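Sat 14:20. Reprocessing the chain from the morning session after the first attempt stalled halfway. Input below, unchanged.
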Amino acid sequence: MSDTASEIAIVHNHWIHYKDLLFRELKSRGLSFTVLYTAAASTERPPSRALDCAYPVIIGHPGQYEEVKSFQAMRNVWRSLGRVSPKVVIICGWCDWAAWTAWTWALLYSIPIILWAESNLFDRRRTTLREALKRVFVGPIRAAHVYGSSNKQYLLALGVPESKIFTKRAVVDTKLRGTGSFGKSN
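Finished this time. Tokens:
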């Protein structure tokens, strides 16, 4: 039996304000999940509040995402998934070793995978090898959630059947709360 059992494990790179709002809303609706953050923060994002989350989290590295070594991320995700023992794994993208480790773990244990995809055809230069790897990644997913039509078109181009793609739109109440350089209350 797992010490932190959840129905769902959400594998995410680091705390970010707009996903925090989503996770808080999911928690308020009674969803049983644990967020597995590769790191607590990122040098490219607003200050982190990952240690003050109102939902269950496991943080693989207490510092910056950019400092995390590949092997460390892989080990932390593998162990954390074993502790959580989810019935579904949600993977937020395919850009790092943590995502690929979660993907491998889920396939090994026959756990359904849901992909949260924010990429589109024009967000960066594409290479044949990377696109081929992404096609492998999306092959076994059970479903994909995207923000809009350009994200959906990209997954269709990677071979995801339209019936598996759901548009979630960014409709969370995005009024930022708290203090700091963002979300300052007036």
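The beta strands are 8-14, 33-39, 57-59, 88-91, 113-117, 143-146, 165-167.
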